[in-house]
UniProtKB/TrEMBL annotation:
<protein>
    <recommendedName>
        <fullName>KIB1-4 beta-propeller domain-containing protein</fullName>
    </recommendedName>
</protein>
<dbReference type="Pfam" id="PF03478">
    <property type="entry name" value="Beta-prop_KIB1-4"/>
</dbReference>
<feature type="domain" description="KIB1-4 beta-propeller">
    <location>
        <begin position="28"/>
        <end position="303"/>
    </location>
</feature>
<dbReference type="InterPro" id="IPR005174">
    <property type="entry name" value="KIB1-4_b-propeller"/>
</dbReference>
<dbReference type="InterPro" id="IPR050942">
    <property type="entry name" value="F-box_BR-signaling"/>
</dbReference>
Length: 341
């Protein structure tokens, strides 16, 4: 399901409600009370939200369906991360990704970790920690992170499709540092650059890298530069074999659907309202959300791998993306939750 952004109406009760687009229920809209996310910046993984607000830079995990919560260290406890109240908006919109090393933060799994991307920083913690731990060792711009459950490794994709890995659950290995695994051979596939990329587990011995290309209709103005009107134009998918070190391009997702955006990238089998061989995407250029007068978030849709067609997800925008991004939530517990309007 897709959790839409916070309402921008003047009605106080609407701010505590969040709308959800239920793909498995024919694309219907529902509302749930979620005051825990009110005026909070949110990213998502495994059906959970990582929220942070301006007050003291608190972070916590929130389950939007059960409303269970797990407190995490304050973000300013990340080593060498400088915070300034006057620059809050910059840092607020730099929280882009969160992944877990296992699905359930309420379990007693000693290897459970929460890993985040905050601007140019990767940090991780366990529930109960008093501070975050930095992970270092990559070059360029961070695109995405993914935890490979079978390999028990964190994987990172950065500029030009460079892939790095790190063992974040081994307490002996400290400080934590990434090591380069491979760099995407773009020339072999006719790709001169990697404009944006996502990474996810693809079977027990592979990674899937999805590249995203956007078309900019025109510059908004000199101040905002390239963040004028834009739309996603194309995705391409490449598989990297962790055992043989080989890259291959794929034209089909094999009946699966991939979900990307301000969530941890994931794939599920098509069916029950989810279209197979498609990429479901939301707008994750975070600068426009606060840098453009009309806000960000309009670049949302379904990309069909077979013919490159982009389908709108729903017709009415209703200004729901003006202040915060929509988020994909992977969960199978919705029918058991009471109080859905």
């Amino acid at each position: 399901m897709l959790m839409l952004a916070e309402s921008n109406t003047d009605e106080d009760d609407e701010h505590e409600l969040r709308r959800f687009l239920l793909l498995s229920n024919g694309g219907t809209m529902r509302k749930l009370p979620l005051p825990e996310a009110q005026r909070q910046r949110c990213v998502s993984t495994h059906g959970w939200l990582l929220t942070t607000g301006e007050q003291e830079f608190y972070t916590k995990l929130v389950n939007p369906l059960t409303r269970a919560q797990v407190d995490l260290p304050r973000l300013y406890m990340i080593e060498e991360l400088y915070f300034d109240q006057d620059e809050w908006m910059y840092y607020l919109f730099s929280m882009r990704k969160v992944v877990f090393t296992s699905p359930n933060p309420l379990s007693s799994d000693p290897s459970f970790r929460v890993i985040i991307v905050w601007g140019r920083i990767i940090g991780f913690c366990q529930p109960g920690d008093v501070s975050w731990t930095r992970i270092k060792g990559w070059e360029g711009h961070l695109f995405d992170i993914s935890y490979h459950g079978a390999r028990k490794r964190l994987y990172v994709v950065a500029t030009m499709g460079a892939i790095y890995e790190c063992d974040v659950t081994n307490d002996v290995l400290c400080p934590k540092a990434l090591s380069r695994v491979t760099t995407f051979p773009g020339e072999e596939f006719g790709c001169s650059c990697v404009p944006w990329a996502y990474l996810l587990e693809w079977g027990c011995d592979s990674l899937l890298m999805v590249t995203r290309e956007r078309y900019y209709f025109k510059k908004h103005d000199d101040e905002y530069g390239r963040y004028g009107p834009y739309r996603t134009s194309r995705f391409q998918c490449f598989v990297f074999g962790l055992d043989d070190g080989k890259w291959s391009k794929i034209a089909s997702l094999g009946g699966k659907a991939v979900f990307i955006g301000f969530n941890s990238s994931f794939a599920i089998d098509g069916g029950e309202g989810v279209k197979p061989d498609c990429i479901y995407f939301t707008d994750d250029l975070y600068e426009p959300y606060h840098g453009l007068p009309e806000g960000g978030g309009g670049d949302v849709g379904i990309y069909h791998m077979f013919n490159g067609r982009i389908e709108t997800l729903f017709e009415s925008q209703e200004s729901v993306f003006r202040s915060s991004p929509p988020l994909w939530l992977q969960t199978s517990t919705l029918p058991k939750i009471k109080g859905i309007k």
